[in-house]
Amino acid sequence: MKYLIGIILAAFSITASAQTLEGKDRTGATVTLTQETGPCVNGAKLAYYVSADKQMKVSGCWTVPPGAEGISLAWFNGYIGGMPIQVFKPKETL
């Protein structure tokens, strides 16, 4: 339980200190988490998905539900899913 709380606190600390986080899913697609609200509601923030071959790009919303071990995602094409918090790192900027 302490480990889970640590993961959640780490996610909140990362999101508080970084404007944008980026991670790869198991297919190699890039998921970007922003701090922008956009059309998202109830505390959710804007997310972007780009497939590994860069052919599919989808926007959506992300949040970390209480007690969760990962990020919850809802995409505007109707798909829902989640990813482990640990895969996200601050996005490299030039």
Structure, described:
This protein is globular. It has a 7-stranded antiparallel sheet with strand order 6-5-4-3-2-1-7, with helices on one face. The protein has one domain (2-89). The longest helix is centred in the N-terminal third of the chain and has 16 residues, at 2-17. It has one helix spanning 2-17; strands at 20-24, 30-34, 45-50, 57-63, 70-75, 80-84, 89-90. Strand 5 (70-75) and strand 6 form a beta hairpin. It has 1 helix and 7 strands. It is α+β, with helices and mostly antiparallel strands. The chain starts with a helix and ends with a strand.
Question: Which helices and strands, and how do they pair?
Answer:
Layout: H1 2-17, E1 20-24, E2 30-34, E3 45-50, E4 57-63, E5 70-75, E6 80-84, E7 89-90
Antiparallel strand pairs: 1-2, 1-7, 2-3, 3-4, 4-5, 5-6
Task: Fill in the keyword field for this structure.
alpha+beta; 7-stranded antiparallel β-sheet; 94 residues; disordered N terminus; 1 helix
**From the helix content, strand content and strand pairing, which structural class follows?**
alpha+beta
> What is the strand arrangement across the widest sheet?
6-5-4-3-2-1-7
Number of helices: 1
The outline comes out as: globular
Order of helices and strands: HEEEEEEE
Rounded average pLDDT: 85
Enumerate the spans where pLDDT stays under 50 for 5 or more consecutive residues: 1-9, 13-17
In which range does the helix fraction lie? Answer: 10-25%
What percent strand?
A: 35-45%
Number of strands: 7
Sheet with the most strands? 7 strands, antiparallel
Determine the N-to-C terminus distance. Answer: 38 Å
**Overall number of structural domains:** 1
Radius of gyration: 13 Å
